[in-house]
Structure formats: structure tokens, C-alpha cells
Design a protein that fits this description.
Elements: H1 5-19, H2 26-42, E1 48-55, E2 58-66, E3 82-83, H3 88-102, H4 130-134, H5 147-150, E4 162-163, E5 172-175, E6 178-180, H6 184-194, H7 213-221, H8 225-237, H9 276-280, E7 291-292, H10 294-305, E8 309-310, E9 313-314, H11 318-324, E10 366-370, E11 374-379, E12 384-390, H12 401-404, H13 407-419
Antiparallel strand pairs: 1-2, 1-12, 3-7, 4-6, 5-6, 8-9, 10-11, 11-12
Helix pairs in contact: 1-2, 2-13, 3-7, 3-8
């Protein structure tokens, strides 16, 4: 799984030469995409990937490359399902929160404790607003590794919390032959409620609140979290594969595996969420757990790019989508929107090697990346949607070649060079 620094340097130089070419033809555009992605496969950044690019509401490019794993048995297909990891944040919990804000059930600038009652007794949290929390400006702890709560020092699972078969009070399935105590979810909430909050109110990424949003949404709507998403978003836009727990559904689509897990499941993780915190919650969470195809992701991103409208349907108001997708605290050098990621401040002046995302992405653009190697981005100004799916964590999450080769940013910029510049 390693390659020499000389090979990496040659690839980086090659890719930079390719990307610097502008005013390219369709043939050159497609050739350069193939060159970048196949070099990524050869350098084991991922065993396979797919790229979907859309402009003016229409898909202009969608191709699959490589295989599910390095044994080259199962080819990647454009209908394959991927573990979306943190892309779940903007395609799961976030649209529900946007609708609740839209309908007046939630106010971005009221204390979040007004809606999440346990925080009313927490002095360090009782005044935090949802705006601050979603913009990662609230000072919340970045993460809590709940896997340590269910494992012993030798790595074995604690029988107090985990059983190998479903039993009374152990019905929450995290994986095949792994059932979590039903009350563990309350333990997760308690730990989040008791977590530290920094006095330094500057940009500090935290995914903790996304673990509690499904429960909050259920409390506010009286509907299960998954049903609320399906009825209000996935079904109306025709995103038939977007959802949680694909192994429990009869999809004909192949599911791309993620990691050869050595920490928790001790086998190849496939069809069940890779993120351990989401897994311990039964695979349904606001921080991770969604699976879907590139085509269904395109429909959701198109809904956002068109500011809440898809075809003749308006699912969210234009004002609420624009509010969530704009930078909230630029005066604090915080680039984030509400839940959405945004380009680095001054991104158009930064070299390609340091930019995020493509330097040509407009300041109105937005999206999110996922730990498993997923990335989605929409640009309303240029009417361009970019979706890249891969399983870069195969066979191990220690593999960072996707980042070292800067593959996603280069592909993203290539799309601007061809379609916009």
C-alpha cells in the first residue's frame, strides 16, 4: 500500500501540468479525468471511484472507474451505493433542520437549549444558539470516541453493552452479530450534554451536535427521523436509494465496501456505516450513516443549488437555503455556512495545491466532504455540481493518498476549466 516519494512527485508534476491547461476540448477534458483518476488507482489512493458533473441542471459527465477492492473482481458501476460518511450531515439532518427553521419551529438565534432541554441545566451550553453550533462557532468539543465506552483495554467488546445476538434490551444492531444495549443511546446523549465547551468562540469543527439531531427532529415533528426525511425530501426529489441501513433493504444496487476494520468489527465493513459512533446508534445518525448513489446525491444538491426548488416543487424557501449556504462568521476567519462547508477565505488567490475546493469555485458555492472519500459541491453562480465518490479508506483509514495527490481539487478545477473558463 506504499509508493515511493519519486513516483508521487512525478504524479504530482504530471497532474499539475494537466490541470494548468485551459480552453480544453471535450476529448481533452475526458482524457484528463481518466488520467487523474486512474493514476489515483495505480497509486492506491482508492481501488475505484466515480465522478458526476452537472451544469445547468443536467448531468454532463458521469463515469465509474476501477473496482470495489484491489482484487479487481467487482467493477465500480454508476449505480453503486456508497457510504457517504459526513456528507450525511448536509443530506440527512440538515435539510430537516432547514425545514423546521423554514416553518418557524426552530429559530437559529434562540438558545438551542430551548429545543434540547438537557442543555438548560448546563451553564456552558444553555446560551449557545443553533447558528453558532451549525457554523462550528460554539466551542463544542470536536468529537467523542464512544467506541472506547464499549471496548476493554485488550480491544474486546464489553458484554455489558454488546451481545452477539439480539436479546431483550439489546436490539440495536451495529453490525452482523453486534447488538448494542438499547440504553446506550442515552449514554451518548449524556456524554454530549456533559462535554466541555471552549471559551474561545472561533472556528472549531465539531460533529457532536449531529449525533443528537435525529432525536431532536423526532421530538419536534412527532415523526421518525427517517420517515421525515423520506416523506419531505427523498421521495419528492426521486432519490430512491438515499437512506440508512441499505443491508436491510432490497436494493438491486451493489454496495461499495469501506474498511478492513481492525478496531470494532474485525472484518470488511460493507453495507453498514463505517463511522463507529453512528454504528453504535444503530446506523442512523446525523453525522454519518447515509448511503446513496451519485445520481441521488445530484438530485439533493440540485435542490440546494436551485435554492429549495426542484422542477415544479418547492421543498424549502429560497431565503432559508440562502441563509444556510452563506458564510456566517467571516469576521472570525470562519468560512463555514450553517452545516455546509464553504471555500477557504480568499480561495481564488490560493495555489491549486493549497486551495479548497477548486480555486475557481465561487464564494456562493457550498458542499461537504466525507471521511470515506466522498465529496459533493454545488455552485449556484456557475450552475455547476461536482460529486466524487470513492472508498479511500480501503483497506485502511490510514491511507491518505487521496489527499496527498490532491485528486478531488484537481478534478474540480478541471471541470471549471472546461465548463466555465
Amino acid at each position: 500500500m506504499k509508493f515511493t516519494h519519486s513516483i508521487l512527485l512525478i504524479c504530482l508534476l504530471c497532474f499539475n501540468t494537466v490541470i494548468n491547461a485551459q480552453n480544453i476540448s471535450k476529448q481533452q477534458f475526458e482524457y484528463q479525468i481518466v488520467s487523474i483518476i486512474t493514476n489515483g488507482i495505480h497509486n492506491e489512493a482508492f481501488p475505484g471511484a466515480q465522478l458526476l458533473v452537472a451544469q445547468n441542471d443536467s448531468i454532463v459527465y458521469h463515469q465509474a472507474f476501477g473496482h470495489h477492492t484491489y482484487d479487481s473482481v467487482q467493477k465500480v458501476n454508476i449505480t453503486d451505493l456508497y457510504d457517504l460518511a459526513s456528507v450525511t450531515k448536509i443530506t440527512g439532518a440538515l435539510p430537516a433542520l432547514m425545514k423546521l427553521v423554514d416553518e418557524g419551529f426552530v429559530d437559529l438565534d434562540e438558545p438551542f437549549s430551548k429545543y434540547w432541554k438537557p442543555w438548560r441545566k448546563r451553564k456552558n451550553k444553555q446560551e449557545l444558539t443553533l447558528r453558532e453550533i451549525l457554523a462550528h462557532q460554539a466551542g463544542l468539543a470536536p468529537y467523542i470516541v464512544f467506541l472506547t465506552k464499549v471496548t476493554k483495554k485488550n480491544g474486546k467488546l464489553k458484554k455489558r453493552f454488546v451481545r452477539s445476538t439480539p436479546q431483550k434490551r439489546y436490539s440495536t444492531q451495529a453490525y452482523e452479530a453486534i447488538y448494542i444495549k438499547d440504553g446506550f443511546k442515552n449514554k451518548v446523549y449524556r456524554n454530549i450534554n456533559r462535554s466541555n465547551v471552549s471559551d474561545d468562540k472561533t472556528y472549531r469543527y465539531s460533529g457532536l451536535s449531529f449525533l443528537i439531531y435525529p432525536k431532536l427532529i423526532e421530538d419536534l415533528t412527532g415523526t421518525t427521523y427517517t420517515a421525515y426525511l423520506k416523506n419531505n425530501f427523498y421521495q419528492p426529489v426521486g432519490a430512491t436509494t438515499l437512506g440508512y441501513l441499505p443491508m436491510k433493504k432490497s436494493y438491486p444496487n451493489q454496495i461499495v465496501p469501506t474498511e478492513q476494520d481492525t478496531l470494532f468489527r474485525h472484518t470488511l465493513t460493507k453495507g453498514w456505516v463505517h463511522d463507529e459512533n453512528a454504528a453504535l446508534l444503530g446506523g442512523i445518525s446525523g453525522n454519518a450513516g447515509l448511503f446513496g448513489t451519485a445520481d441521488d446525491l445530484f438530485k439533493i444538491m440540485l435542490l440546494y443549488q436551485n435554492f429549495g426548488k426542484l422542477g415544479n416543487q418547492r421543498l424549502l424557501s429560497e431565503s432559508v437555503v440562502k441563509e444556510f449556504t452563506k458564510i456566517q462568521f467571516p469576521e472570525n476567519d470562519n468560512r463555514r455556512g450553517l452545516g455546509f462547508d464553504k471555500p477557504l477565505l480568499g480561495n481564488d488567490t490560493i495555489p491549486l495545491s493549497k486551495a479548497y475546493p477548486a480555486p475557481s469555485a465561487s464564494t456562493s458555492s457550498f458542499g461537504h466532504a466525507g471521511f470515506t472519500g466522498t465529496f459533493v459541491w454545488a455552485d449556484p453562480e456557475h450552475q455547476l455540481i461536482f460529486i466524487f465518490l470513492s472508498n479511500r479508506v480501503y483497506p485502511t483509514r490510514a491511507n491518505r493518498n487521496l489527499y496527498a495527490l490532491n485528486i478531488r481539487t484537481k478534478l474540480h478545477q478541471l471541470c471549471y476549466d472546461y465548463l466555465i473558463e
